[in-house]
Structure formats: structure tokens, C-alpha cells
Amino acid sequence: MDSQPKRKPNAREIAARMRDEIAAGTFGPGDRLPGGRAYAKKLGVSLMTVQNAYAQLREEGLVEGVAGSGTYVRDAAPGELGPRESARRLTDLQGEVARLSTELADVVERIKQLEAVVSPTEGEPGA
């Protein structure tokens, strides 16, 4: 039995999940995303959290809201990438940013280690 309560996803994580589903073709052009209230209840989060996730997807150009009807996966305009390819590229880009962030953190740590070796400490001659 798991005594730890399951962590609730934040808006960024919900948007990433929906983006992955769009990239996988689970939701295609013209498909309606789950209603905000029902989806929030299913995930155990507030309606605002789901609305923020959907807003992020709108800002990325993957979905559009239709007043009184819901949120739908956008159909690509002529010359635009389709939502599936756009979502795939966004996911790839986010993975690359995460990889680069990790590499940058490693470089910063190595610089600190080098500075500790090269820089004289207080109280030593030349300090």
C-alpha cells in the first residue's frame, strides 16, 4: 500500500501531457480537448490549473478556444506545420533545453571546482 499521496500535476505538466497526446495523434486537427471542469476533477486539480495549461497550448499555437464550446486542436493554415508536427517539435525543443540546462549546470560546477583549486584561500600568502 502506498502511503504517499499522489502529487497533482501543475499547468506546465498538464500542457506537456496534452502536447504529447497531440504529437502522438490522440488529438488531431478539429478534435475537442477534454472539458476543463471534468478534466480538472479527473486530475484532482483546480479548474484554473487546467485553464492555464490550455492557455499555454493556445500561446504555442496548438489549440484555439471557441467561446461556449470548448478548446480545439487547431487546423494548420496553408504553409503552416500541422499541430501534430508542431507539438512534436516543441517536445523535442523542450528536451534539448533540459539537456542543455543540465550540461550548463555541470559546467558551472566544474568552474567552481577549478576556481577553488586556482584561487588562493583567505589567510594564505598572496590572498
TrEMBL record:
**Xref: Pfam families:** GntR
Q: Which Gene3D superfamilies does this entry report, sorted A to Z?
A: Winged helix-like DNA-binding domain superfamily/Winged helix DNA-binding domain (1.10.10.10)
> The HTH gntR-type domain covers which part of the protein?
8-76
Extract the coiled-coil ranges from the record.
Answer: 90-117
UniProt-listed PROSITE patterns:
HTH_GNTR (PS50949)
CDD domains in the record, alphabetically? WHTH_GntR
Superkingdom of the source? Bacteria
Q: Which UniProt keywords apply?
A: Coiled coil, DNA-binding, Pyridoxal phosphate, Transcription, Transcription regulation
InterPro entries assigned:
HTH_trans_reg/aminotransferase (IPR051446), Tscrpt_reg_HTH_GntR (IPR000524), WH-like_DNA-bd_sf (IPR036388), WH_DNA-bd_sf (IPR036390)
Q: Which SUPFAM superfamilies match?
A: Winged helix' DNA-binding domain
Matching entries from PANTHER family are given as: HTH-TYPE TRANSCRIPTIONAL REGULATORY PROTEIN GABR
Tell me the protein's name.
Answer: HTH gntR-type domain-containing protein
Higher taxonomy? Bacteria, Bacillati, Actinomycetota, Actinomycetes, Kitasatosporales
